[in-house]
């Protein structure tokens, strides 16, 4: 698909950035969305 070495390097860099952004979004999204639910559940179990 890519005939030049520069094209291959550029494609590898773009894929790396997209994969990293997807991993970060997947890790941060659930952590920020489900934090309060876990706290409420723990409070109910101990009360």
Describe this structure in words.
With 47 residues, this protein is mainly alpha-helical. The protein is 87% helix and 0% strand. The chain contains two helices and no strands. It has helices spanning 5-33, 35-46.
Could you provide a short overview of the structure?
This protein has 47 residues and is mainly α. It has helices at 5-33, 35-46. The longest helix has 29 residues, at 5-33.
Topology diagram in text:
Elements: H1 5-33, H2 35-46
Which structural traits does this protein have?
47 residues; mainly alpha; 2 helices; 0% strand
The proportion of strand residues reads: under 5%
Shape: rod-shaped
**Largest pleated sheet:** none
Low-confidence sequence ranges? none
Given helix and strand content, the structural type is mainly alpha
Total helical elements = 2
- What is the helix content? over 70%
Q: What is the alpha-carbon Rg in Å?
A: 20 Å
| Oligomeric status | single chain
Question: Whole-Å distance between the termini?
Answer: 62 Å
Number of strands: 0
Overall pLDDT confidence: 74
Q: Could you state the order of secondary-structure elements as H and E?
A: HH
């Amino acid at each position: 698909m890519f005939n030049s070495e520069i094209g291959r390097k550029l494609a590898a860099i773009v894929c790396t950035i997209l994969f990293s952004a997807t991993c970060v979004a997947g890790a941060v999204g659930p952590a920020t969305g489900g934090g309060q639910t876990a706290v409420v559940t723990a409070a109910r179990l101990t009360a």
